[in-house]
Amino acid sequence: MNSRILIVEDEGIVSLDIRETLENLGYRVVGEARTGIEAMDLAKEFMPDLILMDIKLHGEIDGIEAADRIYSLYDIPVIYLTSHSDESTLKRALKTNAFGYLVKPFNERELYSNIEMTIHKHRIMKKVEPAEEIDTTLTFVSDAVVTTGHDHIIKRINPAAESVTGWTREEAFGMDFFELFEVDKNVVSDMMEAVSRDAFEKRSLLSWVDNLTLKKKSGEILDISMNIGYVRGNRRIPDEFFFVLIPKGSDGDMKENSLERYYRIIMDAIDVPVYLIDSEMDIVIYNQAFSDLCVSLGVNLNHLDKPAYEVLPSAIFGNKWDYTDIFKSGSAFEKERTYKEGGILRYLSIETIPLTDGRKVTHAAVIVRDLTREKEIEDRDEMVAMNFRAHSKNVEEIADLCGLLKEPLSRARKTASSGDTYEMRKIRESLSEISDVLYEIDMKWLKYEKMRNFFDIQNSLSEDKDNSD
Fold first, then answer.
1. What averages of pLDDT result for each successive group of 10 residues across the chain (469 residues)?
2. CB count, 10 Å around CB of 377?
3. Cβ distance 31 to 46 under 8 Å?
4. Contact in structure between 71 and 40 (CB atoms under 8 Å)
5. How far apart are CA 323 and CA 283, in angstroms?
6. CB atoms within 10 A of CB 106
7. What CATH class does 272-370 carry?
8. What is the C-alpha to C-alpha distance for residues 60 and 69, in angstroms, rounded to an integer?
9. How many CA atoms lie within 13 A of 400 on its CB side?
10. Do you find a cis peptide bond into 105, omega within 30 degrees of 0?
């Protein structure tokens, strides 16, 4: 076992008790912190496998903020410890990248199971987590790149951007983009809104802004242009804006090779297969996910001297006229395709988006999404619904039969009550037992009715969501 754990707890006795418990379970405690700032320092120094973080900490930042910063900076999973299980605190905690929480006092078995589940879950996530790949890509990109969420809080800053702005990753992380760099918020936020809207409406992935100034850490004012990209997130990964900072006088014009360089930054942040074609229909950029898809399709990407429609199977990705139309019409389109992989039918959504330089369509981005799992879930849900409808019909028929028994049962009880012989008393007892059974069936029917109403509401909500989509 010997997983390395950092304890963050401002009560010394409690911290000591947790340490002893962890060591008895075979874990290695690498350190103990009492404040959020100290926790961040020890996390950076020891890089533990997991952190046990008390939510209520004294100092500048509490446990929730410290955990969020640590996970974003160092990718270390956190389990929250709290004496308070109030809803507002837990909601705030669980909005961060929390892997779980324990309400004090907790027992040894609870602690052990939570730690093991968290470490296992984090290892699984690391195998599919694109964030590390994005950070690696940005490290080697020569352009200065800063990323934020919709809240304008800085999430990433690469070495080139550190050099341009004078701010290090540790200093810039978690700061407001506009407050730190003093960039014109009105102009840039309008472009952010436009590019995110364009992404939803399938018109563009980038937006260009000229004549901006940026304040460096030294106080020097720098004239820059800026390329703003937007990547839509998913259930695990939030939306992210990419800002390419281009100092005046650098090679930041809107030539096609420049565009391709900036699009590469955005595409490497997308965890689904994407490739970019130019006006000659050649594949000029593709990401790792697309390369992996091509391997499964048996497509060789080592020979890209031919147009995309000759390199890729047209039955899946489209023919020459599909590619030509995107440049002529300038309109996005989406098609569903199927193919067999190892005898399994797979469903793909092929979405083609025209990309412009502000004047004409220069490139087209093709985004591929695997819909197989969604189709399986739809088929499973339909099967469940069919079975539920069949069972519902049977239950309703049983309820109807039980209803038919009530009137003759009432007549039999009335007849049996007219005599006081031993046989009549036994009949009355039997009729009473039958009446009790029918009552239990009625109670089960009421429970079934509640369940059916619940499913009806869920189906109605699902249909409304599908219609709105």
1. 87 91 91 94 92 89 87 85 66 66 80 80 59 61 84 90 93 94 91 72 60 92 86 68 81 49 66 85 84 83 81 88 85 84 83 77 85 79 74 76 80 79 84 83 73 60 53
2. 10
3. yes
4. no
5. 11
6. 14
7. alpha beta
8. 13
9. 6
10. yes
Helix H, strand E, coil C: the string for the chain is CCCEEEEECCCHHHHHHHHHHHHHCCCEEEEEECEHHHHHHHHHHHCCCEEEEECCCECCCCHHHHHHHHHHHHCCCEEEEECCCCHHHHHHHHCCCCCCEEECCCCHHHHHHHHHHHHHHHHHHHHHCCHHHHHHHHHHCCCEEEEECCCCEEEEECHHHHHHHCCCHHHHCCCEHHHHHCCCHHHHHHHHHHHHHHHHCCCCCEEEEEEEEEECCCCCEEEEEEEEEEECCCCCCCCEEEEEEEECCCCCCCCHHHHHHHHHHHHCCCCCCEEEEECCCCEEEECHHHHHHHHHHCCCCCCCCCCHHHHCCHHHHCCHHHHHHHHHHCCCEEEEEEEEECCEEEEEEEEEEEEECCCCEEEEEEEEEECHHHHHHHHHHHHHHHHHHHHHHHHHHHHHHHHHHHHHHHHHHHHHCCCCCHHHHHHHHHHHHHHHHHHHHHHHHHHHHHHHHHHHHHHHHHHHHHHHC
Contact 46, 6 (CB under 8 A): yes
CB crowding 75-98: b at 16 or more within 10 Å, else e: bbbbbbbbeeeeeebbeebeebbb
Superfamily of domain 4-128: Response regulator (3.40.50.2300)
Distances (CA, A) of 305 to 184, 273, 310, 377: 43, 20, 10, 40
Q: Give dist(CA 435, CA 458) in Å, integer.
A: 35
Structure tokens at 136: 């690696």
Cβ neighbour number for residue 99 with a 10 Å cutoff: 20
Sheet holding 283-286, edge to edge: 283-286, 274-278, 361-370, 344-356, 333-341
Asked if residue 240 lies in contact with residue 256, where contact means CB atoms within 8 angstroms, the answer is no
Query: Topology of domain 129-269, per CATH?
Result: Beta-Lactamase (3.30.450)
